[in-house]
Amino acid sequence: LCKAILRQRSLEDSVAVILAENLSSWCAPVGSLTCVFKKTFSDPSSCEGETSLRRHLRSDLVAVRKWTGTSSTYLQILMFSKGFHIIQAHRVAHVLWHKGHCWMALQIQDAVNKRYAIDIHPTALLGRRVVMGHGTGVTIGEAVKIGDDCTVLHGVTLIGTGGYELNKSPRIGRGVRVEANAVVVGNISIGDGAKISHGSVVESDIPAGATVAANELIQSSPKGNAYSAVGVCAEGIPLDAEGKIGTSIKSISCGEDYFAMYPIAVPPTKGSVTISWLHKALR
């Protein structure tokens, strides 16, 4: 906690240290890897899709908190959530790949694979507030696209058909839930709000709002592409006067979350948690 939280100036720096500590044994020296993560997170041009990594980080954290309910605090997610760590490491690898640092991106992919038994190609595009529940055994192939507010559970495989043709990989819409051990293969589209039940194998397009179970389409929503967001709107995360997130964890609303694992010396007010409050609370 001292190294990952108390000595860091921002949420980005804390996540960079945690990721580097977790992945260094399979990738690069921890100091070098920390610098790579910190530099990538702090660069305003670092984006996946049209959203900066700083916004992604905060909205991902809130989405995981909402998905887990009251069973986990923000601090527990930040420190110990494998799914959250995997998503952040992939976002950094994705940025590095598109900036021409393909070797480093592949090193991070390989380290995540060895550390967490999860394989996500750096070219895969993940939307906002994607939640990876449990995560072990997930494979997401090259050029796969996953929309906003999706949930991917353990053992899921999302891959293309192979070969040299373009647009060969699945495209997952917004608000889709892909349950454990489901397989989605080929140049197909999964509509917004669809649900793919555990163990299903999908090789053809699925309409919006549909449910697939036992490899059969068993339900289609009359609302078409309507879906319920898992997390919160990333655009709702405020920036400071200079337009930077900087040293504040401004997106995290305290509510009744008092980081129950640790005694809190300074009770939070309802609203936002700053890094300075977090430091005081953990001392």
General description of the model:
- This protein is an alpha/beta fold and 283 residues long.
- The chain has a domain at 124-236: UDP N-Acetylglucosamine Acyltransferase, domain 1, CATH 2.160.10.
- The protein is built from eight helices and 19 strands.
- It has helices at 2-6, 11-23, 30-42, 53-68, 74-80, 82-98, 102-116, 275-282; strands at residues 47-48, 51-52, 119-120, 125-126, 131-132, 139-140, 145-146, 151-152, 157-159, 171-172, 177-178, 183-185, 189-190, 195-196, 201-202, 211-213, 216-219, 248-253, 272-274.
- It has a six-stranded mixed beta sheet.
- A hairpin with a 2-residue loop joins strand 16 and strand 17 (216-219).
Mean pLDDT: 79
Q: Name the CATH superfamily assignment of the domain at 124-236.
A: Hexapeptide repeat proteins
Give the proportion of residues in helices: 25-40%
The CATH class designation of the domain at 124-236 is Mainly Beta
Largest beta sheet, briefly? 6 strands, mixed
Q: Give me the secondary-structure category.
A: alpha/beta
- Amino- and carboxy-terminal Cα gap: 10 Å
How many helical elements?
Answer: 8
Number of separate strands: 19
Radius of gyration, CA atoms, in whole angstroms: 19 Å
* Fraction of residues in β-strands: 15-25%
Order of helices and strands: HHHEEHHHHEEEEEEEEEEEEEEEEEH
Write the CATH architecture name of the domain at 124-236.
3 Solenoid
